[in-house]
Design goal:
Structural class: alpha+beta
CATH topology of the largest domain: Nucleoside Triphosphate Pyrophosphohydrolase
Radius of gyration: 19 Å
Shape: elongated
Helix content: 10-25%
Number of helices: 3
Number of domains: 2
Oligomer: single chain
Length: 181
């Protein structure tokens, strides 16, 4: 049987924290070439919620992101806990970050977070919320805000809502007919 290329020759994992590993893969692309080492970040799967409140506004969160050294305006999102169902994780993240409970939830899409560098999957959901819980207290450094779809479109075009994975969730929701601009 002929060898199939590309071929992963070795894989090593370097734990960095409970939420992150660096993976080194030695890959050979054909029988005459030497192996090349490729690095990736391994993290738990990720969930993103495009959440619409009962008054038809979109929930966004503003939080400081050390990786980019500034505040970011994004959709409610986060990593799955071990053995957690993605729907459960999306509802949990929404409630933790915004104080809004999930009334209905629909999978928008599922795919690679960043196929060249991150080896996890993003699960995106369209959520209709209930009313905000009465005694909700925001997490330190995280603030929830409400916007209309037209305002969200303007924020996207101005670069103020610029997390590309989250822009993709909005685009996929629009392509599925869940929202209209």
């Amino acid at each position: 049987m002929a060898d199939v290329f590309p071929k992963i020759l070795t894989v090593s994992r370097i734990p960095v924290s409970p939420w992150l590993e660096v993976i080194a893969r030695d890959v050979q692309f054909d029988s005459g070439s030497p192996a090349e080492t490729y690095y990736a970040v391994a993290q738990p799967d990720y969930v993103v919620a495009l959440a619409i409140t009962p008054d038809s506004r979109v929930l966004l969160v503003r939080q400081y992101r050390p990786a980019i050294e500034r505040f970011s305006l994004e959709l409610p999102a986060g990593m799955l806990d071990p053995d957690e169902d993605p729907r459960t994780a999306a509802a949990r993240e929404l409630l933790e970050e915004t104080g809004y409970p999930t009334a209905t939830i629909e999978l928008i899409g599922k795919g690679a977070t960043c196929s060249s560098r991150i080896s996890n999957t993003t699960h995106s959901f369209f959520i209709r919320t209930g009313e905000r819980v009465h005694d909700f207290s925001e997490e330190p450094g995280v603030s929830a805000t409400l916007t209309t779809l037209d305002e969200l479109r303007s924020l996207m075009l101005a670069g103020a809502f610029a997390e590309q994975a989250h822009v993709g969730v909005v685009a996929l929701a629009a392509a599925r007919g869940l929202i209209e601009f």
